[in-house]
């Protein structure tokens, strides 16, 4: 780093940030506040969805949490800023719409289509993020660091690989079952399937 340059914690370390000011709040306080708010939100959602099946309650908590995270906490280097702009403006609202589809009876027909669409977006975005970092030899992180690499980069992002993959599988399974039911109903009743022109 050049003489007189401001020392900052970001990667790459030689990035010039002339207006950088150190954070006055500790990382422990920030993480505590963030995870505390997520916990309170999920408790409220859990209580608000009483009477619904476990799967619906978990999905509502997941999609509302994702919607808020995608809408509020996005940023990074150029490729990621472009990708995360899409995430913030598309995935965030789409997650909230998906949660709404699980709660509002008039929207229930859309729930698995929305679940599939938003989960594919999440999986694609996180796969792009992981692969970009791998191809750039982790230059945006401190490779191997217990907090920055293993917790922030690996663990938190792996959640957005595992849960969307499970949601994709679930949505496809439900949509295939419904299509099979419609096909068998049409076949047994002798009704031809409706064709659009």
From TrEMBL:
PROSITE patterns: EXPERA. Pfam families: EBP. It is a multi-pass membrane protein. The chain crosses the membrane at residues 30-47, 85-105, 150-169. Residues 27-168 form the EXPERA domain. Coiled coil: none annotated. It is found in: Membrane. InterPro entries: EBP, EXPERA. Its main location: membrane. Belongs to the EBP family. PANTHER family: 3-BETA-HYDROXYSTEROID-DELTA(8),DELTA(7)-ISOMERASE, STEROL ISOMERASE. This is EBP-like protein.
């Amino acid at each position: 780093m050049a003489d007189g340059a401001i020392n900052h914690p970001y990667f790459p370390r030689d990035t010039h940030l002339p207006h950088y000011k150190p954070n006055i709040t500790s990382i422990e306080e920030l993480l505590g506040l963030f995870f505390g708010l997520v916990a309170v939100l999920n408790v409220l959602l859990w209580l608000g969805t009483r009477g619904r099946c476990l799967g619906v309650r978990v999905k509502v908590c997941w999609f509302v949490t994702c919607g808020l995270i995608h809408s509020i906490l996005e940023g990074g280097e150029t490729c990621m800023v472009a990708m995360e702009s899409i995430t913030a403006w598309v995935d965030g609202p789409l997650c909230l719409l998906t949660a709404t589809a699980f709660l509002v009876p008039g929207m229930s027909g859309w729930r698995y289509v929305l679940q599939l669409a938003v989960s594919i977006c999440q999986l694609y975005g996180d796969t792009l993020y992981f692969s970009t970092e791998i191809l750039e030899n982790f230059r945006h992180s401190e490779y191997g660091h217990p907090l920055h690499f293993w917790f922030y980069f690996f663990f938190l992002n792996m959640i957005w690989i595992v849960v969307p993959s499970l949601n994709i599988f679930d949505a496809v399974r439900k949509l295939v079952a419904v299509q099979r039911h419609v096909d068998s109903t049409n076949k047994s009743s002798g009704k031809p399937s409706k064709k659009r022109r």
